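Sharing a chain and its predicted structure for anyone who wants a worked example. Both blocks are below, sequence first, tokens second.
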Amino acid sequence: MVGLIVWLVIGGVVGWLASIVMRTDGQQGIFLNIIVGIVGAFVGGWLFGGGDINSGVITPTTFLVSLVGAIILLALVNLVRRGSLR
């Protein structure tokens, strides 16, 4: 149970930081930040060969991989929705 809470909190922080970097913070709430953080972690883990927050180990490297994955996810969403990376 504690692992789930930590996963949600770290996912929320990752999603929030990615939304600040991509300037979409005003459009997203906490729930969407958590979703972006967790899905972005999967994207980062897939692109960089594992080592994301979803693997259960939280280190600066896994945090960074998850953050980069979340930024890439938001960039792709912006590209599809607006036709630009912003």
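Comments welcome. The mean pLDDT is 85.
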